Amino acid sequence: MISEPGRPGATRYVLFDVDGTLINAVDNQRLVWRTWAERYGLEPDEVYRVALRTRPMETFAQVAPDQDPRECLAALHELEDEDVRSGTYTAFGGASELLNALPPGAWALVTSNYEHRVRGRFTRTGLPVPKVVVDAAAVEEGKPSPVPYLQAAARLGARPEDCLVIEDAPSGVQSGLSAGMTVWGVNTPEAIDGVHRHFGSLGEAVRDILAFASGPHPHRLEGSATVE
Predict the structure, then answer these.
(1) Contact criterion met (CB below 8 Å) for 156 and 147
(2) Of the chain's two ends, which shows fewer C-beta atoms within 10 Å, N or C?
(3) DSSP letter assigned to residue 19
(4) Pair 172, 143: CB distance under 8 Å
(5) Which residues are known catalytic residues?
(6) Residues 30-57: what's their mean pLDDT?
(7) What's the pLDDT score for residue 228?
(8) DSSP states of 146-158
(9) For the chain, how many helices (H) and strands (E)?
């Protein structure tokens, strides 16, 4: 059994990834990258496969090395901003219940996206926005570096070992683990390497996340999967 960090009696905090964890944006991301690829005469599916595993500037270097990466990024940002205004978004089941039940000041968002887009998506899906949002502009090193999650903890006044990270992607899981935090995975059919616990959906994890946040000790409640 993989042990979880934590101090008996300490205040607990929950740090959430956004896309793929709280907001279902897969179709939106695929459409944005398809439109971007078509602008540059590229094969959309191949571009999207690269984009899934790299950051935008790295994606441009691989799929459009003859293009100005700054212009590529500006075009991508334009499409993403338009998608926030006009795209269709849904929150994962349990997201609203969970976020509205957490005490203010006890949770934060840690995203590789930009805060204005997160706020736009949350407004459209009716989700509350916490005081602390660590976005792509807030850090020089993104996930899988521990920096984003460590910054969120610092802004909350939390110790890393008292934080629970909720993630759906390997880079985010590595980021949380490197920061010395408890990491639970959601919304994936199989457990991501390294997670302390795995849930097939966010909804399945709601009860345990709230228990973690309110309890003085780590909780392993019936019905949850613990990674052995």
Answers:
(1) no
(2) C
(3) B
(4) yes
(5) 17, 19
(6) 94
(7) 40
(8) SHHHHHHHHHHT-
(9) 9, 9
Q: How far is CA 135 from CA 167, 203, 227, in A?
A: 15, 24, 29
**Structure confidence at residue 54 as a pLDDT band (50, 70, 90):** confident
Can you give the pLDDT at residue 24?
Answer: 94
How far apart CA 74 and CA 64 sit, in angstroms, is 14
d(CA 87, CA 93): 19
Between CA 52 and CA 36 the distance in angstroms is 14
Whole-number Å distance between alpha carbons of 79 and 50: 18
Mean pLDDT score across all residues of the chain: 91
**Which amino acid would we find at residue 70?**
R
* Total length of the chain: 228
* Beta bridge pairs of residue 109: 16, 133
Distance between CA atoms of residues 102 and 99, nearest Å: 5
Phi, psi of 112 (to 5 degrees): -85, 0
CB 63 within 8 Å of CB 69: no
Average pLDDT score over residue span 17-26: 94
User: What would the two tokens of residue 213 be?
Assistant: 């946040």
pLDDT beyond 50 at 219? no
